[in-house]
């Protein structure tokens, strides 16, 4: 992409997050898009492209166009790559803008799984699909939800490389340290490694503090051409590179499940497109549905050798003051859980230099991950406040 059709992120819209009841996913989506448009200095009437990630609940779809009263839509689609969807939407929107299919594209994720009077752990219970035959065997064996399935991946990493629960705990503690500086974060109270180890077991070896939050809310980003963004309200965030990788793991002998994720190929493609190496990256915003996911993604992106992720996070490298700031808003573990929009939104904030107390001085190149399913889908973005020369 070059010239005036190069796409940039020009607007960011965030709703409130957490236990916010009485509002639908569509309510959150409309608010997030309106806030993103206002942030950019645009109107809803300027938007001629809409990409919708419907979340697990599937409560928003293409009819969001009508809710927004969009009358001149040139690009309209749902994108369902689960936690990798945010990165995918930015990629597709960028290509559509470069091709002239649309001029201003809104990408939105919104969900409202939390219901009054029901615990967070039960929020996604109603979304499980009925299974029959051989396909039902994992569920019959107890692998019914994400924590159990990620626990298998985490345990395999531990058995293969000697990774410890305390090293997972270092990821949780670092995320909370960052969240303490983020006014939007749901969980800001400091925690210690001892707190992590004392938290109840959810799915061995994953404890409560190894698991992400559940949140109601919505996030949207707006992309347009670099030429148009130059005259808008906010500084543009430039997209240097991207990649996707979808391993298609099967539960069979010889699979690399739990050891190598889609981040390995997706990250390498994004770096190659950007024309940089992993050593050029200033910070990472990682999809951290579980502490293990942060650790294995950092390995697969190449910030440490395979099997050395535990020692890397234990060293304090990803915490405030560390050599590689990671999830500077608190991530999904401590800030809010909006699938891939959580790391993407923090990357935009950091690239603009608007992180307040948590702003990282070096923010020229930011790597953003999205992980969907149970390590099934992966997207990567490399963002910067500077245009690529």
TrEMBL record:
Gene3D superfamilies: 3.40.47.10
Domain Thiolase C-terminal: 255-384
UniProt signal peptide: none
Top-level lineage group: Bacteria
InterPro entries attached to this UniProt entry: Thiolase, Thiolase-like, Thiolase_C_2
Protein name, as recorded: Thiolase
Organism per entry: Actinomadura keratinilytica
């Amino acid at each position: 992409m070059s010239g005036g059709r190069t796409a940039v992120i020009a607007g960011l819209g965030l709703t409130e997050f957490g236990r916010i009841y009485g509002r639908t996913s569509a309510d959150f989506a409309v608010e997030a898009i309106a806030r993103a448009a206002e942030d950019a200095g645009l109107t809803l009437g300027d938007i001629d492209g809409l990409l919708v990630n419907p979340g697990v609940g599937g409560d928003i779809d293409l009819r969001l166009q009508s809710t927004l009263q969009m009358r001149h839509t040139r690009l309209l689609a749902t994108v369902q790559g689960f936690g990798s969807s945010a990165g995918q939407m930015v990629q597709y929107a960028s290509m559509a803008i470069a091709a002239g299919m649309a001029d201003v594209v809104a990408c939105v994720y919104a969900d409202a799984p939390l219901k009054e009077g029901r615990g967070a752990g039960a929020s996604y219970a109603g979304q499980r699909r009925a299974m029959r035959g051989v396909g039902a065997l994992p569920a019959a064996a107890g692998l019914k939800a994400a924590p159990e399935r990620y626990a298998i991946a985490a345990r395999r990493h531990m058995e293969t490389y000697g990774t410890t629960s305390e090293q997972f705990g270092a990821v949780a503690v670092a995320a909370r340290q960052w969240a303490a500086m983020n006014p939007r974060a749901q969980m800001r109270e400091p925690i210690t490694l001892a707190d992590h180890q004392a938290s109840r077991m959810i799915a061995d070896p994953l404890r409560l503090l190894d698991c992400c939050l559940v949140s109601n809310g919505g996030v949207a980003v707006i992309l347009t051409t670099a030429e148009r963004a130059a005259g808008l309200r906010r500084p543009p965030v430039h997209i240097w590179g991207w990649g996707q990788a979808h391993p298609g793991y099967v539960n069979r002998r010889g699979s690399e499940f739990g050891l190598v994720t889609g981040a390995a190929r997706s990250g390498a493609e994004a770096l190659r497109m950007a024309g940089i190496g992993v050593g050029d990256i200033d910070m990472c915003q990682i999809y951290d549905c579980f502490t293990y996911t942060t650790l294995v993604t950092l390995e697969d992106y190449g910030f440490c050798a395979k099997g050395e992720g535990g020692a890397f996070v234990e060293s304090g490298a990803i915490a405030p003051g560390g050599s590689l700031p990671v999830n500077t808003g608190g991530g999904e573990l401590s800030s809010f859980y909006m699938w891939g929009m959580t790391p993407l939104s923090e990357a935009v904030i950091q690239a603009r230099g608007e992180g307040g107390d948590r702003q990282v001085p070096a923010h020229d190149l930011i790597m953003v991950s999205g992980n969907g399913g149970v390590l099934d889908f992966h997207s990567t973005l490399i963002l910067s406040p500077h245009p690529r020369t």
